[in-house]
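Lecture 7 notes: from sequence to structure.
We start with the chain below.
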Amino acid sequence: MAPANEHGTTCLPMDGEVLPAPDFNRLAERTQTSGGALQLNFYARPAADDRWSPWRGGPEAVRRALLVLVAAMPEGSLPART
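Predicted structure tokens for the same chain:
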């Protein structure tokens, strides 16, 4: 299981920081798909000083975060995509 914050939601470790799902939901730009579904967007601009700056990490931080998430995955096969 991936790390969780105080809200019980999954978060991604980045250089010792986390981006909890409630913060992502609050900060992400909202659009609507052509089918009417809500879509949350963010833009990865490495040099920008924007709302995502506190959680921005370099390639090494992303690598470490992904290794933590992969290691936390339970053994077994993934369900079939439909």
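Points to note: The first helix runs from residue 21 to 27. The radius of gyration is 15 Å.
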